[in-house]
Design a protein that fits this description.
The chain is an alpha+beta fold. The chain is built from 3 helices and 6 strands. It has helices at 3-19, 45-60, 140-154; strands at residues 27-32, 70-80, 84-88, 91-95, 104-113, 116-126. The strands form 2 sheets. Strands 1-2-5-6 form a 4-stranded mixed beta sheet, covered by helices on one side. A two-stranded antiparallel sheet has the order 3-4. The longest helix has 17 residues, at 3-19.
Length: 157
Amino acid sequence: MPAVPRLALGLVTLCLACTSLPSWAGQVEVNWVEPDQYADAGRSVVDRERTMSALGDHLKRWGRLLPAGQTLKLEVLDVDLAGEIEPYGWHQVRVLRGWADWPHLKLRYTLQAEDRTLKSGEAELADMHYRLGDRSSELGFEKRMLDQWFKNTIAAQ
C-alpha cells in the first residue's frame, strides 16, 4: 500500500477512535436560596453579590468536568466565609485567626443525566484546617473546600 493511502487510513482510524471517547461538557446550575439570611457572605449587599458571583463562577466551571448530558443542580443554603469581619479604623477587614472561624457552606445538590437522578442530597461543608492551604485567589479557602467536596462526592461516581 502506498504511503499516502496508509496515512489517510491512519487519520480516518484516529478520527473514528476519538469520536468514541466520552465527551466532557456537562453543566452546573446554581441557585442562591435566601442569600440575605446567610451567616456571613459579606457585610453589605455589594459584598454578598461579589461573593455569590465569585463562588458561582467557580461552581459553574465544574461543568467542563462532567460528562456531556449531565447537569449538577446546586442550591446554596448557607455561606459562612473564613475569618471574621472586624473594624479597622474607618474600614472593616476580614481577619483570619484559624480558631473557630473556618469556612462553612451548606448545599443541596442533584446530579442528573437525561431526566434520571444519579445522586442527590444535602452537604454541610467545613474546613477546620483552612489556613494550611494556599490563598492565592479570592475566596481561595472556600473554593478549595468546594473542589474537595466535588472530587469526593460528584466526580467519584
